[in-house]
Design goal:
alpha/beta, nine-stranded parallel β-sheet, 18 helices
């Protein structure tokens, strides 16, 4: 059996082909209990505003006109404490809140300077609270106007700031009986594992895309990892999927191979059909699902900022620019917004479990304290806009070494520490590893549109190969419609072949420049030649900062990665395949270095997730206990749906712990060793990073 055939790679999908076809004074400041335990006690919040998150209060006007209550379509003062409206203060972001009433209506800015009752959370229900001289003020985040009391009538109104200062002052009285703001449950009980010994234990996902809702123009994915107005806004289907999913051609082809499929488009609260393990365009990384994965043992999480210009140019709907570097900037900003949002739920800056880190020291501290260390990476097809000359869409954009240095400096300043240099298409840095079959045909069309050339192949001279491209002509008719007249998609041999393109001089400069900055070189998606030449540079320098983050390099490269002290993570596929790959990796490991294993889920990256297993051979038994024995995991509920790995597969990221439990069971007598190696993954990655970091 060859080194290649030990590994069953993930199913790849024809992405390109489918694209073508208030002031408020508190008499007592009550800090709400976080939804999940905080591994460390950071003490009281730095600003009393932050401690309001999740608390239940009634509002008393500082004018002496009494408490706030509902008044038809709006609100007014004059009520006694016992009849006052009770509001859940739902954090919309740091220092920003929504007033969620007992009847689920929210205080909102309305027309004609009125404060109205809104049935739904919208930007108009978002208020920025400030605390000065013992009083809070609430300013509409969207307009800058202030919540106030109309003295003649007692009605709540919105006015220009400073119009009547005392009328905009309210007291918050702790209350009971507030309605709960809609949210997905975590269904995990217990405290996250912390470490005082120095060795970090837990799991590591080395390749995931939490901000992919912004990629390829920002309209191709349905749903978002978070929204200031909460889950009912974040998890909605795309407008172009209505009605009934029938117009969702891209989703139907990618996920089902049939443009005439349909799906229930309700999402929250029913989630009848999506998210699903095989849905390629629906959000699977909502922040509460990531929270459940963290509660289940996840301690490191490499969030790759991702996009593809060619797909963006071809897809008709856009709200973001197609420039890949600009998309990276947008996604990096959103990643930090998520960190702030999680902090807001937990009572202030630094108090949340989601922590973006840019050094191994910070990562080790965060993970050892029981929180999730989030590192940033990049996976785009045209880094820094560097293309090959002759591209059909947008033409070639030649880059210099100075352009690469400026680009890497910008990424480094963003906090990016891991990078893939070639992805899907050949580019100015080197050749790419092929996709196989019908997907290969689709990506090859994209390669032509990006570079002006189709892939050039040659027989492979060693054990490594770039995947067999071979596809049938009839399957690619629709894809070729995007090609200029007279351009024909070439045929390729059915056997494994190699890309003629290797690492270019500019690519060599990029690798060395990453090394100079102590960055981690991810060789996934490099052609055999490009990967070999890159590894030679790293070997000559004895540079440990190299990873295969999700199994997209030839397995024959794994021993070389391990010999350098690098890190390998397999694609998060079926339990059977993953455990087999782990067993092979144990044989490839180098005993000179600390060994631990990781996974690359590629969630939100157009990669199918582990399917449900319905043959009855085994099952995840709920509730189960995490590897450290400190947390009990039950089936996860979101709205009306209860997710069960046995029947749903890895339908969303919160089921990562369930998938790992399934693999532990599958590994049988090796289950204990499997869990030991998996929970050593973060430490292995950290030691690798520490050897190269500046």
């Amino acid at each position: 059996m060859s080194a290649r055939s030990r590994f069953v790679r993930r199913r790849a999908l024809p992405v390109l082909g489918a694209t073508v076809a208030l002031a408020v004074t508190c008499t007592a400041i009550a800090v709400s209990v976080p939804r999940s335990p905080n591994p460390t006690d950071p003490g009281p919040p730095s600003d009393p505003v932050y401690g309001l998150a999740g608390g239940c209060y009634s509002l008393e006007s500082d004018t002496g006109s009494g408490f706030v209550s509902r008044d038809g379509s709006g609100f007014r003062t004059g009520a006694k404490a016992g009849t006052a409206e009770r509001f859940r203060l739902q954090a919309a972001q740091l220092g920003r809140f929504m007033f969620f009433g007992s009847d689920t209506a929210l205080i909102a800015t309305g027309d004609a300077d009125k404060a109205i009752a809104s049935a739904q959370p919208t930007p108009a229900t978002d208020w920025t609270l400030t605390f000065t001289d013992g009083a809070y003020t609430a300013t509409a985040t969207s307009t800058g106007r202030q919540l106030s009391v109309d003295r003649p009538t007692g009605a709540l109104v919105v006015t220009a700031p400073g119009t009547d200062p005392s009328a905009g002052r309210f007291r918050l009285q702790p209350a009971e009986g507030c309605a709960d703001f809609p949210e997905a449950d975590v269904n995990a009980t217990g405290a996250p594992l912390t470490s005082s010994t120095g060795e970090v234990r837990g799991f590591i996902d080395a390749h995931v895309h939490m901000n992919a809702n912004e990629f390829i123009g920002g309209e191709i994915r349905c749903g978002k990892p978070y929204d200031p107005q909460g889950i009912t806004v974040a998890l909605q289907d795309c407008e172009d999927h209505q009605p009934g999913g029938v117009p969702a051609v891209l989703e139907n082809v990618l996920s089902h191979g049939n443009p005439f499929e349909s799906h229930d488009t309700t999402m929250w609260p029913s989630f009848t059909d999506v998210p699903s393990y095989d849905s390629m365009t629906h959000e699977q990384l909502y922040y509460r699902w990531v929270e459940r994965a963290w509660r289940g043992g996840l301690r490191m999480f490499t969030n790759l900022l991702v996009s593809n210009r060619v797909l963006c140019e071809l897809y008709p709907l856009k709200s973001n620019p197609c420039d890949e570097m600009e998309t990276v900037r947008i996604e990096a900003r959103q990643a930090r917004e998520i960190q702030d949002y999680v902090d807001a739920q937990y009572g202030g800056p630094g108090r949340g479990w989601f922590r973006i880190v840019s050094s191994p020291e910070d990562a080790r501290h965060v993970a050892a304290s029981g929180k999730l260390a989030v590192t940033l990476g990049v996976e785009i097809s045209e880094p820094f806009g560097c293309r090959m000359p002759g591209g059909v869409l947008g033409g070639g954009l030649q880059c210099t070494e100075q352009d690469v240095d400026r680009g890497l400096d910008e990424l480094y300043a963003m906090g990016v520490r891991q990078m893939i240099l070639t992805h899907k298409f050949d580019n100015a840095f080197g050749g790419v590893r092929f996709d196989a079959g019908i997907t290969g045909a689709a990506i090859n069309v994209g390669n032509f549109l990006s570079t002006g050339e189709f892939w050039n192949v040659e027989p492979c001279t060693g054990v490594a190969a770039d995947n067999p491209i071979g596809y049938a002509g009839e399957e690619v008719i629709e894809m070729t419609k995007s090609l200029p007249p007279g351009i024909v998609l070439p045929a390729y041999p059915a056997e494994e072949v190699c890309n003629t393109r290797g690492l270019t001089p500019l690519g060599e400069h990029a690798v060395r420049a990453m090394m100079q900055r102590g960055m981690i070189v991810d060789i996934d998606h490099m052609s055999v030649k490009t990967a070999d030449q890159t590894l030679r540079i790293l070997e000559d320098a004895n540079y440990s900062g190299v990873v295969s983050s999700h199994g997209w390099t030839d397995p024959s490269n794994y021993p070389r990665i391990y010999q350098l002290g690098g890190f390998v993570a397999s694609y998060a596929g079926s339990s059977e395949n993953f455990v087999d790959e782990w067993r092979a990796a144990r044989k490839d490991r180098d005993d000179d270095y600390f060994f631990g294993y990781g996974f690359g889920a590629d969630t939100n990256g157009f990669g199918s997730q582990p399917a449900p297993r319905l043959d009855g051979t085994r099952s995840v038994r709920y509730p189960f206990t995490t590897f450290d024995g400190g947390t009990v995991m039950d089936r996860q509920r979101a709205g009306d749906r209860v997710f069960d790995f046995n029947t749903d597969g890895l339908a969303q990221y919160g089921l990562i712990p369930d998938w790992i439990e399934d693999m532990r069971v599958y590994a049988g007598k090796d289950g204990a060793q499997f869990m030991d190696d998996m929970t050593r993954g973060p430490e292995a990655y950290l030691q690798m990073w520490e050897r190269v970091a500046e």
